[in-house]
Amino acid sequence: MRRVVTGHDENGRSVVVSDGPVPRSREFTSLPGWVSRLPWATEPGEPVGRTGEDPTPKVTSLLPAPGGTRFIVLTFPPDTAMADPAFDPVAFDREQRADSPGIAELIEPDGMHTTPTVDYGIVLRGEIVLELDDGHRTRLSAGDIVIQNGTRHGWRNHSGQPATVAFVLVGTERDG
Predict the structure, then answer these.
(1) Which of 58, 88, 101, 167 has the fewest CB neighbours in a 10 Å radius?
(2) Whole-number mean pLDDT of the chain?
(3) Do you know which InterPro entries this protein is assigned to (predicted)?
(4) Average pLDDT over residues 141-166
(5) pLDDT in the model for residue 47
(6) Which pLDDT tens digit goes with each residue over 95-153?
(7) Interval 43-74: pLDDT, tens
(8) CB 4 within 8 A of CB 16
């Protein structure tokens, strides 16, 4: 995946300051096919960076504070990968906690989770199912978008192919 970042030169003109792979990317060894990428992040009240300096090395939590954002791109392997006898859920949890601090701690054993964020999701490739609290399932495919309003949910890939989804998480205040 390629990331192009713009900024300004010393004369205030817009320029491309970075063009290359997403530096903060991880292909999990505990679950082949699971890929996590953090192309960008902002902190609350932070002005637009004129230099285009990469903020991702400083991110210590993928859960943004109210007013902050995280741009995350996940590739989900088919759910059958977790049914493989070689799958080690403890190793996967350890990798999740190292890669996705702030969010990984909120993920329940069945993959359901709730975050104090509004998430804008765009399915880039494949098919994925959004499961909600009541068991309701909505199938999404490439080009579909979902607005996730801080509700408990989980992602399921029942297809035989990987699914890639881009998410922009906007930190909000908890609702009660």
Answers:
(1) 58
(2) 95
(3) Cupin_2, OryJ/VirC-like, RmlC-like_jellyroll, RmlC_Cupin_sf
(4) 97
(5) 85
(6) 999 999 999 999 999 999 999 999 999 999 999 999 999 999 999 999 999 999 999 99
(7) 999 888 778 889 999 999 999 999 999 999 99
(8) yes
Residue 21 carries which side chain, given as an amino acid letter? P
Residue 141, token pair as written in the block:
């495919």
3-class SS string, the chain: CEEEEEEECCCCCEEEEEEEECCCEEECCCCCCCEEEEEEEECCCCCCCCCCCCCHHHCCCCCCCCCCEEEEEEEECCCHHHHCCCCCHHHHHHHHHHHCCCCHHHCCCCCCECCCEEEEEEEEECEEEEEECCCCEEEEECCCEEEEECCCEEEECCCCCCEEEEEEEEECCCCC
Pairing of strands 137-141, 127-132: antiparallel
Q: Indicate the pairing of strand 25-27 with strand 35-42.
A: antiparallel
Q: Which sign, positive or negative, has the C-alpha torsion 42, 45, 46, 50?
A: positive
